[in-house]
Each structure stands twice: as C-alpha cells, then as structure tokens.
Amino acid sequence: MYSEKVMDHFSNPRNVGEIENASGVGTVGNAKCGDIMRMYLDIDDSGVIKDCKFKTFGCGAAVATSSMATELVMGKTVEEALKITNKAVMEALDGLPPAKIHCSLLAEEAIHSALWDYAEKNGMKIEGLTKPK
Ligand code: FES
Ligand code: FES
C-alpha cells in the first residue's frame, strides 16, 4: 500500500525537532482528521533556507510527507520553497494511497505558514504567498 520511500521516511524521519529563534514557524492542522504539523525554517540574509525542522502529531503519511518536505525546502530560496506543492512532495515519495492524499497537504500548508511568519517578522511581502487560514 505504501511505497518504500514512504516507509523509509516514516520509520526514519529526517529533520525532526525544533529550531530555536527560527526565522519562521508555521503550525497547521488538518481539518479532516485533526492531525497537526509544525514547521521551523532558518532563513539567511539572502533569503535561502539553511535549515528546516518539523514536528508532526499525526499519521504515518503525514510524518513521511513532512520529512520529505523538509528535505525539499532545504537550500531553496523563499520563492522556490513557495512553489513546492503537496503533489511535488507526493511525487518525491513515489506516491501515496488516495485516502492519504489529504495528509500531504499538511506539509505544503506548513511551509506556507512558516514563510508567512517569516515575511511578517521581517515586514516583507512574498510574491504569491497568501495568508494561511
Ligand atoms: Fe490522523 Fe488517524 S486520523 S492518525
Ligand atoms: Fe491526518 Fe494523515 S490521517 S494527516
């Protein structure tokens, strides 16, 4: 049912934890199931994501997508990170079962929420980023 990559990221999630004094923090909840994900971003002066950590209180698919999402945003610029969709995260994991697609939305929303927090803290506007719900 789950791809090898999903099982790998679920059993051995990358970048779990918190970043103290993070540039941006985003917490999102999944309305469908009540699972929660928090993402921390460390962004340098040139707008490049230097570090990314997450904590997910949720199902295995949410843990795996969060883990993969942190790997995808690392080293990206803010603008590039904004373009990472849940579809891209799922593709990087070789897919998810249909019933688990909503889980991958947590990762995309958490990235956006953390970027919004970063932009607000720095009084900037990020093109194409809308306020998270
Ligand atoms: Fe998220 Fe069951 S609904 S683990
Ligand atoms: Fe809720 Fe996966 S079942 S995020």
From TrEMBL:
Annotated coiled-coil segments of the chain: none
GO MF annotation, one: iron ion binding
Record-linked InterPro entries: NIF_FeS_clus_asmbl_NifU-like, NIF_FeS_clus_asmbl_NifU_N
Protein name, as recorded: Nitrogen fixation NifU-like protein
Organism of origin: Mobilisporobacter senegalensis
Highest taxon above the source species: Bacteria
Domain NIF system FeS cluster assembly NifU N-terminal: 1-123
A biological process term (GO) from this entry: iron-sulfur cluster assembly
Pfam families tied to this protein: NifU_N
